[in-house]
Design goal:
With about 400 residues, this protein is α/β, with parallel strands linked by helices. It folds into two domains: about 180 residues, FAD/NAD(P)-binding domain (3-Layer(bba) Sandwich), CATH 3.50.50; about 140 residues, FAD/NAD(P)-binding domain (3-Layer(bba) Sandwich). The protein is about 25% helix and about 25% strand. The strands form six sheets. Strands 1, 2, 5, 6, 7, 8 and 19 form a seven-stranded mixed sheet that branches. The structure holds flavin-adenine dinucleotide. Flavin-adenine dinucleotide (FAD) binds next to α1, α2 and α9. It comes from Flavobacterium caseinilyticum.
Length: about 400
């Protein structure tokens, strides 16, 4: 087996395949290997729509072999060690691969075990999570069958992929219950580790209205750490005004939970990680996407310490920067392309209406369309539910969008 590649990509998800395709469009003779153990490739942004009962889960998954760009080599292995001083990675099978240039993008790790009891009750007892391919359909089953009572939606204290997903599903659930005429029987709580509903004030203002209209009780700065499904009770920590941490609990009838997240363990345990980052992400220059200590290493997607919102939308802007800068160093030129922290969060505020929140590192709105995107509208709903899924499979993974 060939064990040396000019460019080795770790992770064949949204980031890995976008960047491989874009590299080959620029230079078709590149020798690229992509290491990824997964047989399947997922379009995760549609899991919110699956949980809301308007998207077929089977349309969010394809075989990895069918989406791997032609003229690359898929290596079905899992990396577990980086040796950047020797330009080498080792896989859990013991196999080693060497490279001239490395691109690291194995995504983010879902730390289900950090909420005691969650993993065992997922998919039953009216507890679900759209963060799982397996369980997103159960979210809809719960929402559709809910007849009233206490509904709890959680958001962890850690950074996560798609910061909007924990509350997107809440707005859709509330809208569904309103349309069923049962909202007055629903006591809806949002238990969030964040301190605000959204980090960009222009978009936060819209969501504050949506929360008010749905009579949603918001609890900020709380740390959900246990679910006792048998007793339908959720436990969380909350600071009082004196700064003391109090352990509180709430009975629930329905719970949508989002796990804490961090860098995959093999990144956390590696020399590539940012020592100062509590979640162990890969240390890169947040503008050039180049590793700060190993110049032939780049990283993008959910695994980096770039302080942007972790989304596929961010990857669309990061991938061309990685491609331009990687080709520059191959040509012994300076890296000049810069990523400005752009990210986007499409937030459905009700069925048929969506607010497309776009912003950069400075949390300044960066609206693409000539309308006020802070105002939810139907066109953005169509973009999210119809256009983006098509674009993902047909253009983004192929490097043409
Ligand atoms: C519920 C939900 C809703 C979302 N909504 C949106 C949205 O509306 N808009 C948006 O832009 N984004 C959204 N996202 C976020 C988006 O899906 C991610 O940001 C994006 O998939 C990240 O791409 P990535 O390539 O970094 O990671 P991934 O796409 O997760 O891919 C990582 C790849 O690395 C592989 N890998 C893992 N470990 C190893 C290893 N040891 N060795 C080699 N390979 C490995 C995995 O098998 C996987 O194929 C959402 C996510 C979720 C879960």
């Amino acid at each position: 087996m060939v064990n040396h590649y000019q460019i080795l990509i770790i992770g064949g998800g949204n980031a890995g395949l976008s960047v491989a395709s874009q590299l080959l469009i620029k230079r078709s003779n590149l020798n690229i290997g992509i290491i990824d153990p997964s047989e399947k490739h997922y379009y995760q942004p549609a899991w919110t729509l699956v949980g809301a009962g308007i998207f077929d889960i089977n349309k969010t998954v394809r075989n990895e072999k069918d989406v791997i760009p032609k003229n690359t080599t898929w290596i079905k292995e899992a990396v577990n060690e980086f040796m950047p001083n020797e330009n080498k990675v080792r896989c859990s099978s013991g196999k080693e691969f060497t490279y001239n240039y490395l691109i690291v993008c194995p995504g983010i790790q879902l730390d289900w075990d950090k909420i005691k009891g969650l993993k065992d009750t997922l998919g039953k007892n009216n507890v679900s999570s759209n963060y799982s391919f397996q369980h997103a359909p159960y979210t809809w089953e719960m929402i559709e069958n809910f007849k009233g009572g206490t509904a709890v939606f959680t958001n962890p204290t850690t950074p996560i992929k798609c910061g909007g997903a924990p509350h997107k599903i809440m707005y859709l659930a509330v809208d569904y219950w309103r349309k069923q005429g049962i909202l007055d029987k629903c006591d809806v709580h949002y238990l969030s580790g964040a301190t605000v509903i959204f980090g960009v004030k222009e978009y936060a203002a819209t969501l504050t209205e949506v929360v008010k209209r749905g009579n949603i009780k918001v609890h900020f700065g709380v740390n959900v750490n246990e679910i006792d499904a048998a007793n339908k009770t959720i436990f969380y920590e909350e600071k009082n005004q004196a700064g003391e941490v109090l352990r509180k609990s709430m009975k629930f009838d329905l719970c949508h939970a989002v796990p804490p997240q961090s860098a995959p363990d093999f990144i956390k345990n590696s020399i590539l990680k940012d020592e100062a980052n509590p979640f162990g992400y890969v240390e890169i220059d947040k503008y050039t996407m180049q590793h700060t200590r190993f110049p032939n290493v780049f990283a993008l997607g959910d695994c980096t310490n770039a302080p942007c919102s972790k989304t596929g939308a961010a990857i669309r802007k990061q991938a061309p920067v990685v491609v331009t800068n990687l080709l520059a160093i191959m040509d012994n030129k300076k890296v000049t392309a810069q990523y400005d922290g752009y990210s986007a969060c499409p937030i459905p505020t009700q069925y048929g209406k969506l607010m497309l929140a776009e912003f950069d590192y400075t949390n300044t709105p960066k609206m693409t369309f000539p309308i006020n995107q802070a105002k939810p509208n139907w066109a953005m709903w169509i973009l999210k539910t119809k256009v983006l899924p098509w674009l993902y499979w047909n253009k983004i993974l192929k490097g043409t969008a």
